[in-house]
Amino acid sequence: xxxxxxxxxxxxxxxxxxxxxxxxxxxxxxxxxxxxxxxxxxxxxxxxxxxxxxxxxxxxxxxxxxxxxxxxxxxxxxxxxxxxxxxxxxxxxxxxxxxxxxxxxxxxxxxxxxxxxxxxxxxxxxxxxxxxxxxxxxxxxxxxxxxxxxxxxxxxxxxxxxxxxxxxxxxxxxxxxxxxxxxxxxxxxxxxxxxxxxxxxxxxxxxxxxxxxxxxxxxxxxxxxxxxxxxxxxxxxxxxxxxxxxxxxxxxxxxx
Amino acid sequence: xxxxxxxxxxxxxxxxxxxxxxxxxxxxxxxxxxxxxxxxxxxxxxxxxxxxxxxxxxxxxxxxxxxxxxxxxxxxxxxxxxxxxxxxxxxxxxxxxxxxxxxxxxxxxxxxxxxxxxxxxxxxxxxxxxxxxxxxxxxxxxxxxxxxxxxxxxxxxxxxxxxxxxxxxxxxxxxxxxxxxxxxxxxxxxxxxxxxxxxxxxxxxxxxxxxxxxxxxxxxxxxxxxxxxxxxxxxxxxxxxxxxxxxxxxxxxxxxxxxxxxxxxxxxxxxxxxxxxxxxxxxxxxxxxxxxxxxxxxxxxxxxxxxxxxxxxxxxxxxxxxxxxxxxxxxxxxxxxxxxxxxxxxxxx
Lengths: 256, 349
Fold this sequence. Notes:
The complex is a heterodimer.
Chain A: E1 14-15, E2 21-22, E3 25-26, E4 34-35, H1 47-52, H2 68-72, H3 74-78, H4 84-93, H5 96-100, H6 114-118, H7 125-138, H8 146-161, H9 166-176, H10 181-186, H11 189-196, H12 200-204, H13 208-214, H14 218-229, H15 239-254
Antiparallel strand pairs in A: 1-4, 2-3
Chain B: E1 4-8, H1 12-23, E2 27-31, H2 40-43, H3 56-68, E3 73-76, E4 81-87, E5 90-95, E6 100-103, E7 105-108, E8 112-114, E9 131-133, H4 134-143, E10 157-164, H5 180-194, E11 199-204, H6 213-223, E12 228-231, E13 234-239, E14 245-251, E15 256-262, E16 264-269, E17 271-273, H7 277-284, E18 311-313, H8 323-348
Parallel strand pairs in B: 1-2, 1-7, 2-3, 7-18, 9-16, 10-11, 10-16, 11-12
Antiparallel strand pairs in B: 4-5, 5-6, 8-17, 13-14, 14-15
Helix pairs in contact in B: 1-3, 1-8, 4-5, 5-6
């Protein structure tokens, strides 16, 4: 079992100036290395309440730091910096800055729920991990995750038109996640796609007509048409507007 | 033949013993050094008791009233035993008020002394007005208002430091005082009840809310009253330029030094051996164990015996003890003492 150890000197607390002269003495380079104090100065007692208002984190205040969550954690086994017990403690005390140092890994929780099953105080750490990941995104401490971007576009189309247009969803997803569709195709993405549909053997065996006949045509044409005309579900009317308002109200109620 | 038991100390232990002896028709002489009965809960003005939640003055008050109203109990206040002669079955005690008492058996319910926080100067007691003890906070709760002694403001942040005068080899307190964790979690809830906006932090090494106190006090204070538990033993208490107190220490779970502002710092003081134990041991001819509490004899078949025949010892005189257990000790010792008197009657017949 790996013992969780933190280095006492974080890289971001090391200060070194390339050029520094103090009282006429040149202390450039390694000679002026300073370590910023790592003292915790205060707690933010409201932080726990902020996190508890996210669904799933309602019981975070119950934690007594036994470490069962971390010890059972799938992610911790791969990366000992992934430490739910530690983040829960930081949440309870309101040590946001410490927590944000791990902003790039907190979202990696795979929701296996082993922690939630083993927790003796029913803290439900899996829910806390989700809440923390959402908070980090909501506050803009991290770019929105690909899944959040996908969800947003998906929801927008649902509410606007009562239906999803696959082409539009995927092109916008690639655009929002700054993935170039052309680059993906160039890298052979389309080829892999077609190969997985089991068409290449026809071509390899020289059956060009059969191959073309089985390449989907009608679907893409329809998709292109919908990309231009954007049909709505029949009688969709104000449904999307009403749903959007309801979701907004629920969110405001939860985070009031 | 004496049909009297001498009970020394009128705290929960002594009051319980006296009532038990009187209930089976024997006589009691109850000797108390203070001018009021009730022991630490009354003299120190405790608020609500653990675990009943009853006010100390009501609960212990009933115990006092029951003994005072009993004609079989003779009470000597402002008195101590100055000299003891005789042996088991026929003791003669001379009190400081000149009275002489004949007794067949003796029960010592001489209790403890609160740890004096002045012995841990680094934690600021006696230096800063806003550093207080759990006893003082008990008194604040009993009076219905939590305030910083320096200027009377209601504290926004309260820190309770556990193990003050307990589990500390440096000052020769190599014991756990047993009740401070529970008392502190209880106080945290009472502070929150009186001042819902106050944040209460408990700085601990371990939390030892034993038995059923676990969920009724520790869990409840954490889950319902949002008490924050920080695993750190504070190194020193200082004062910030703005007059607030600063706690310095290491948060061992974050592995970071901490310097945290607080309005009120509370020492969860432990239970020391009664300061007078050396005299008590000398007068009664009983032994002290290595921490300075009264020593016990063989417990399995000679229950609550001291090291001297005919003298019983129980409650916090034996070591840190809670009120409920002390009351049980008192009643158990009553049975032992009354049994001794019965044996004397039997021999005489």
